[in-house]
Amino acid sequence: MKRICLFAGYDNKNIIHDYVVYYLKELSTVSDIYYMADNEISEEEKVKIAPYVKGAYGFNHKKYDFGSWQELIKIVGWEKISEYDELILANDSVFGPLYPMKDFFTKIEKDVEWDICGITRSFEKQVWHLNSYFLVFRYKAFTSDIFKEHLLSVKQEENISQVIEKYEVPFMYKFYNNGYSVKVFCGLNTHIYLYWQEYCNAGVPFIKKKIFNKGMFDSRYKSDWREYIKNNTNYNIKYIEDYANGQADVDLEYIHTSPLIQFIKIFKDFYKWLIHINIKKGKFYFKLFGIYMVKINKKYYTYILFGKPMKSKINAIPIKIIKQ
Questions:
Q1: Burial status of residue 132 (CB atoms within 10 A of its CB: 0-12, 13-18, 19 or more)
Q2: Do you know which Pfam families this protein is assigned to (predicted)?
């Protein structure tokens, strides 16, 4: 199997961190890689990844990951890209891989029915979609007009939320509407940031960097992340610690040590499960014991009586789980 990976990077200090070098090293065992950063990259930084990539580039195009993939397509060219059997879109928003990439691809290649496979899925803007930090496209999909037109349509956006809304969320929907098979490696529907250990236990080979941001980490998993990674993976936690050094928005330590704070959190979680009411413009829901008694969204759906759907306009696509 011959693969090409278009890899998107970004660092506000114009650095290619060691965790990225390791990621590219492992990824190079299963794919040719072309790297593009949405920031300037010095020749000294490029040397770090030179053994593992076919090309390394970087400039401030200000189009986020989708823009980096777009720029790489322009550089590499469709003629070269079409020589490959599969194409990977990946970025540096994760730590890993936690186990060999060859093993991961052995798992997903057992299923011959998919055209596009992602690792995890999310439900945003009333649409199920594959998370774009790692997507695999088979030949039929990445040589399609859908793929080409979508990537070449990318423009500068004001923020990452607009990028997700315009480019990540509708991407898979376009394929599904045109008869392509869209599947996901991990079928969990829980929050990937708060329940990252569950995703790792399910075989997901990466940990999202964002879980280490201040205020993001759930206290249940904050204290034992080092122990968990050491006991369950071969990943070197030094990559995480080295990256965190000097990052003002990253917090690796367990700060909620007060029993009172922990009790308050547990009580709030229990109360939220027991009864939860949310009222916003055009939206209303009332949950009792974790069950929607009434859920109304004027634009998309109305759920009434223990979650039974009464009306639905959701543009949801049935992203199936791959056969392993």
A1: buried
A2: RgpF
Strand 116-118 relative to strand 134-138, pairing: antiparallel
The stretch 2-30 carries a mean pLDDT of: 98
pLDDT digits (tens, 9 = 90+) for 293-310: 666 555 444 444 444 444
Closest among 216, 200, 199 to 250, alpha carbons compared: 216
- What percent of the chain has a predicted confidence (pLDDT) above 90? 57
The whole-angstrom separation of Cα 296 and Cα 285 is: 6
Q: CB of 222 within 8 A of CB of 254?
A: yes
Q: What is the C-alpha separation between 134 and 119, in angstroms, rounded? A: 6
169 with 125: CB under 8 angstroms?
yes
Q: What fold is seen in the domain 3-184?
A: Spore Coat Polysaccharide Biosynthesis Protein SpsA; Chain A (3.90.550)
Rounded to the nearest 10 degrees, what angle do helices 64-76 and 145-152 cross at?
A: 120
Q: Residues 67, 37: contact at Cβ < 8 Å? A: no
DSSP-derived 3-state class of residue 204: coil
C-alpha dist (Å) from residue 65 to 45, 80, 156, 196, 265: 19, 21, 11, 22, 35
**257 and 249 Cβ atoms separated by less than 8 Å:** no
pLDDT tens figures, 247-271: 767 777 654 445 655 566 667 666 6
Tell me the pTM. Answer: 0.81
* Average pLDDT of the segment spanning 103-117: 95
**The pair of three-digit structure tokens given for residue 319, joined into one six-digit string:** 């992203």
Angle at 142 between CA 132 and CA 26, to 5 degrees: 55
Would you place residue 165 in the very low, low, confident or very high pLDDT band (cuts 50, 70, 90)? confident
Q: Where are the domains of the chain?
A: 3-184, 258-307
How big is the CA angle at 20 (ends 187 and 14), to the nearest 5 degrees? 125
Q: Which of 281, 131, 150 is nearest to 196 (CA)?
A: 131
